[in-house]
Amino acid sequence: MKASDLMVRCLEAEGIEYIFGVPGEENADFMLSLEKSDSIQFVLTRHEQGAAFMTEIHGRLTGNPAGCLGTLGPGATNLITGVANSNMDRAPMLVLTGQGSTQRLHKESHQIMDVVGMFEPVTKWATTVYHPETLPEIVRKAVRLARTEKPGAVHIELPEDVAKIPVDAQPLDPRRFRRAVPDDKVVDRAFDMIRKARRPVIIAGNGTIRRRASKQLRLFCEATGIGVLSTFMAKGAVDMDSDTCLYTIGLGSKDLPTLAIDEADLVITLGFDMVEYHPQLWNPDRDKTIIHADFLPAEIDAHYHPQVELVGDLAHTLWMLNARVEASKLPAFDLESQKNLRQRMSEELEAHAGDDGEGPIRPQKMLWDVRQIMGPDDILLSDVGAHKMWIARHYHCHEPNTCLIPNGFCSMGFALPGAIAASLVHPERRILGIAGDGGFLMNVQEMETARRLDSNLVMLVWVDGGYGLIEWKQEGEFGRHTQLSFGNPDWLKLAESFGWIGHAVDNAADFRPVLEAAFDEPGPSLVVAPVDYRENMLLTRRLGEIIQPGMAGG
């Protein structure tokens, strides 16, 4: 067999199920080898960026990497935004690129560039295959690194001449091992700090929705009553209906949930990534007592200087704490203010449930209706824009990985390709992507991919005719905004041209029945609705009036 055949066999041995991408002549050998695979499905996309977003969502939902594929030069550069997004969102991913012959890599040559050097800053590892006999080791290492906490992207470049070389090597059998766990004495120290606290609070980060951590976290909260603040990416770590769910933190402004941190005498962070919500925003005076529990040691930061670090498998760490809770009765905590904050936030979430007016629809109303329609295991994917802020604050979850938000690299154009991948992984669930008109049109070409795959999904586009989040931020800082408006297509004609079913909603009363109807239709459906972004600055002013610590029960 040739090297490209061996590479495919190695990927099969690792259990790779999907490769998304746009091939070129430099990876033609690999594509012909892939065509013979019985276990790996190749999904042809309309842009490499869309392929990378699809690969990210597959990784986030399954915990296992898929592949995104591009050729050399522009194919590789088109991949990089989605790859960076996946890496910072901690999603396992294999990035597979072709390259010109090794005989011309040393000089100026058509489409030649240092692709490995380009990917190094946005991956956990990037390498070139120079000798086909090394492929088993390279693929085994790549998949292991992609899966290892914290997960991320790994890049393999296969030059076209190397792909053709005959080879006798065989794939390595994957061997996976239990991850390291914290030392008992350190866990004892952390547990003693928890016992002595009066108003502890938990910040649940991205790591809590991977592996088995959410189950152990729920047991810990049931036993202790300690409230949980979720980052945007940790929604569903505890059930939204649990009394210990204090909803979401992550907005740049002080919000009701953040008052729980202000009042806390101990902050327990679990699987927390600093890119999600910088500690300077919740520990500005650097005076919080912090227990850090994560797969890796804490990032060094002046506003995040934990007194104790529990480093190791997060689920096992929580299991160790649960064992101590069971064996040693904890004192009663003073958590009444947390209950009051949860009640106040719950009232805000319900405040616009009955809106049925004409004209643009309030974000709160749309998200209330969406939550009523979506089941506990259904999946919502948010693009990046003003709508993301509203989803983060107003859409909450029963289960982990049922609201997928990019919140590290934060790239627009994420929701439509991501929804396609989610529908492949979970065809039995309702899949809803929400995007602004700006973000949706950045990867609109993947509507054809969804139609070709007969993807069972609904895309909801909030229409405001401009870059709403940038306008919101400029208004907040400068009291005005620059020119950010743009035109839009005829949405229903756009849907028809791609073979989608299209719906336009003009008022709040019709929104829910139209969305329910879209979910009952076969194949992909597009729902467009005008959004009332006057609510943006109203929320900014309301958050600016949030009461100070010590008054949360009022």
UniProtKB/TrEMBL annotation:
GO molecular-function terms, A-Z: acetolactate synthase activity; flavin adenine dinucleotide binding; magnesium ion binding; thiamine pyrophosphate binding
Keyword Lipid biosynthesis set for record: no
GO BP term, pick one: isoleucine biosynthetic process
A Pfam family assignment: TPP_enzyme_C
Domain of life: Bacteria
Stated family: Belongs to the TPP enzyme family.
Protein's recorded name: Acetolactate synthase large subunit
